[in-house]
Amino acid sequence: MQPMRIHRGQAIPLGQANIDTDQIIPKQFLKRIERTGYGPFLFNDWRYASDGQPKPEFVINREPYKHGTILIAGKNFGCGSSREHAAWALTNFGILVVIAPSFADIFHSNAANNGLLTVALPEEKVTELLAKAESREKYELTIDVEKLTVSDAEGWSANFPLDSFRQHCLLNGLDQISLTLQRAAAIQAFEDRPKPY
User: Fold this and answer.
1) Under a CB-based contact definition with an 8 Å cutoff, are residues 7 and 71 in contact?
2) Domain total for the chain?
């Protein structure tokens, strides 16, 4: 994981509620064993026609959203199955932040373990951001992980909650393996202790 302190990027408006993990990354792409290579299949069924051609009306097939790194979505984002591949698909595409009124619990955990920041804001504030992102040619947001704020260049800002453990991990680029390796000396000392048999 890469540390995230301040992230600035193009906002992508996708305001549907209850976007589930099968919509984020459909089941037929779960055969891969790597964490990489899922970006082209993100939102596959919404993004491509049956002949494999991109649907020009879908948001991430259009400029400037195809270069976006901050997804704005409706409530209960990431519901459905527990597949970690959903977080991989989003980050592989380049999305590092998802803003929504609420998130499914397992998706929220999977996101945190993969360097994907989930920002929960009140529904009225998400509605404001969606309207701005849809009506402007280029609409960028700034996420400050230290101050726990979302802001834009026009002076709009909001605070968001994030527990101190997830904040620490994001600020320092620590996933579960990195956290364990911080205790490498203690683990080695335990392994090297005299055996009782």
Assistant:
1) no
2) 1
